[in-house]
Amino acid sequence: MTNRRSGGVLRGARLSRAAGLAALLLLGPPATARTLVFCSEGNPESLNPQLVTTTTGMDAAWPVFDTLVAFEPGTTTIRPSLAESWTVSPDGRSYTFTLRSGVPFHRNARFRPSRPLAAEDVVFSISRQWREDHPFHGVSGGHYAYFRDLGLPDLIEAVEAVDARTVRVRLREADATFLPNIAMTLGAVQSAEYAATLAAAGEAERFDREPIGTGPFSFAAYQPDVALRYRAFPEHWGGRPPIDSLVFSITPNAAVRLAKVRAGECHLMPFPNPADLDAIQADPALTLMREEELNVGYLALNVTRPPFDDLRVRRAVAMAIDKAAIVAGVYGPGGTVARSPLPPNLWGHDPALADPPLDRPAAQRLLAEAGFPSGFEAELWYPPVSRAYNPNGRRVADMIQADLARIGIRLRLLTDDWAAYRAKMLAGVPAMALFGWTADNGDPDNFLGVLLACAPARPGGSNVARWCDPAFDALVTRARRLPDQEARAALYREAQGIVRREVPWVPIAHSAVFVAARREVTGYRMDPLGRHLFRGVGLRGPEAGPGPGSPPQGAAGRVP
Q1: What's the pLDDT tens digit per position in 397-406?
Q2: pTM given for the model
Q3: Where are the domains of the chain?
Q4: Angstrom distances, CA of residue 14 to CA of 11, 18, 31, 187, 225
C-alpha cells in the first residue's frame, strides 16, 4: 500500500508539549477503558478515500468507509462487503452487485440520512471519479490519480442503478483486476444524499473534510499534526465495534511512538526502528507482531532526464550499488534484497530473475562508453520519513552515495517535507529518487501496471521513472484481460525480464513489517497489504473487563 503506498503527509518531526496538550483537549483522556489509541506515523493527505494514495491516508479512511467487496482481513481474498453478492457476465464485462438491505449511513451536525444505502450511492461514488463533468468531480481539487493510473476511466463503459439494491458496472473489456481494484479505498461508497445536502447549502467542500460513510466508526474530529478521532458506530451492519472510540495520535518519530506505547499513551504503533525490535520483544508489557508484507523499496532513475536516458548509465548505477550491504545495515532481520519490482511472496514473481553483478570496474567501463569517463554530478532525493519499504531513507541515501562515488558519480543528497517530496516524485522532478510501494490489492498489476506501465508515466502518475516501454506495456495490458492466473503469471515473468534489462529502477529491498502493541489489545491482526485495521479490535484490562476477540496475531514472531 505503498506514492501509495509511500506514506502519510508529515508536517512536523515530533509532537511538542503544546501539541500534546492540544491532543488531550481534542481527544479527552487517551487511555480510557474503551478508547483505543493508535500511534500513527503522519497526517493523511486527504479525508476523501478516493484521493488518497498513501498507507497513512488509507488507514485514516478504513474506519469510516466500506466498499462493495473487501479483502478478508489478513489475506488478499475477496469477500462480500456492502454487496452481499455479485455476478459476472460470461464475457467478463458486466458486473452486477446486489446490495445489503438496510445499511445505515453515519450522521453529523449537518446531515441526517433519510434512507439507507442505495444503488444511487454506488453510482455517485464511481461516477464522481470517472466523469469529469460530474458535479463533485472537482470538489476538493482532486484529480483521482490512482483511479487514472489503474486505467479505470477508459475501462468503465457504464454504471447504472438497476433498482434500489442493484448496481451494474459495464466494462469495455474483461479485466481480471477490476474486483481487487474496487476493494481498495478508491472503491469506498459515499452518500449521494449527503453530497446533495451540502451542495444545496453551498458547502460542497465539507463533503471531504467531514466524511460520512457506512463503516464501523464515524468521523469525529481531525487536528493536523495532533490527532484523528472516530466514534464507534453502533448501527454498523457488521455489528458494533468492541471499543467506544478510536484515536490516531499523529507521531512521526518512531522513537517517540515507542515511548508512548511503553507509557500507555498509545496501544499500538507501526514501523518501529529495526534497532528496537529485540527490546520490544523482551518487554513483558508489549507484543511484537511481524508480517511478510507485499512491498518494494527502489531507486527510480528518471529515463527522461540526462544522463539517465542512457541505458549504459542506468546499468552502471545498478552494478555499483551494494544492495546486500544496504539491507544488512538498514533493514535488519526483516529485509530481503530485491531483484524485481514484485515481492517474492506475490504470485507472478520470477524466482529465476538474476540481479546484475556487483561489478564496479565494469560499471566504470559503461560510464566511459556513455561519455562519462570521470563520472558526473547528480542529485539523489531520499524520503524524510520512515516507511516499511525504507526504514531510514537518509541512511540508504548515504550508502548509495558512497557506492556511486567509487565509480565517479558524485551525488548531492536532497529531501523535503513528505507532502512536498511526494508531489515532486509524482511530478517527475527528480532524476534519481528513493521511493517505494506497498500493495493495495495483492495483484501483480498493482506493482507492474501502476508503477511501470505507460499510463502512469504521465505527470501526476505513479511511474516516477517516467519509463514507457511498449513491449512491457503490451504484456501488462494483455495480462489484465486474461482470467487464468498461470497465464497471467507467465506474462508478468516476461515483463519482469524487460524491467531487468532496461533498468528504470534499481530495486533495493522487500521488507517484513512490524507492529508493537500493548498486551491489553485484543483481536488486532496484521495485514499483507500494509493496512492497519481496527474492526473487531478491543481492549481488556481491569477497567474494561475481559475484552472480546483474541490477542494480537503474530505476537513475538511471524504471523502465520
Answers
A1: 999 999 999 9
A2: 0.85
A3: 1-45+215-290+514-560, 65-203, 295-511
A4: 9, 11, 20, 33, 8
